[in-house]
Amino acid sequence: QVQLVESGGGLVQPGGSLKLSCASSGSTFSARSIAWYRQAPGKQRQWLATINPVGSTTYTDSDSVKGRFTISRDNTKDTVYLQMNSLKPEDTAVYYCNQAYTPLAWGQGTQVTVSA
């Protein structure tokens, strides 16, 4: 049973950057497509990006994140990353990773707060 654990969140000023990590504790990680999501207070969970086993990526069409977030993976470390640049206060949310298409149980996520 694979488990995914998010980390790397924190408090950052507007315009800053963060790199989130999604580490796997199970087997066959390299064969799984992984997605990043976020959920802001009072809002539904939003899909951000997906990366497949060979590194092909898809991103949300939302103008709110387009061009600022980059998903990547290092299968030697069983880890998927989300690089977030030019952060805005509206990016404040709990960020989650999960298996794409057939999600597993959701983890605790990692809190990202963008504030001056």
Order of helices and strands: EEEEEEEEEE
Radius of gyration: 13 Å
* Total number of beta strands: 10
Mean pLDDT: 94
Query: Counting H and I runs of at least 4 residues, what is the number of helices?
Result: 0
Q: Tell me the span between the first and last alpha carbons.
A: 40 Å
The global form is: globular
Strand arrangement in the largest pleated sheet? 2-10-9-4-5-6
> Helical proportion?
under 10%
Beta-strand residue percentage: over 45%
Class per helix and strand makeup: mainly beta
Low-confidence stretches: none
Q: Give the biggest beta sheet.
A: 6 strands, mixed
Topology:
Blueprint: E1 4-7, E2 10-12, E3 18-24, E4 34-39, E5 46-51, E6 57-59, E7 69-74, E8 79-84, E9 93-99, E10 110-114
Parallel strand pairs: 2-10
Antiparallel strand pairs: 1-3, 3-8, 4-5, 4-9, 5-6, 7-8, 9-10
Notes on the protein architecture:
The chain is mostly beta strands and 116 residues long. It has strands at residues 4-7, 10-12, 18-24, 34-39, 46-51, 57-59, 69-74, 79-84, 93-99, 110-114. It has a 6-stranded mixed sheet with strand order 2-10-9-4-5-6, with no helix packed on it. Strand 5 and strand 6 (57-59) form a beta hairpin.
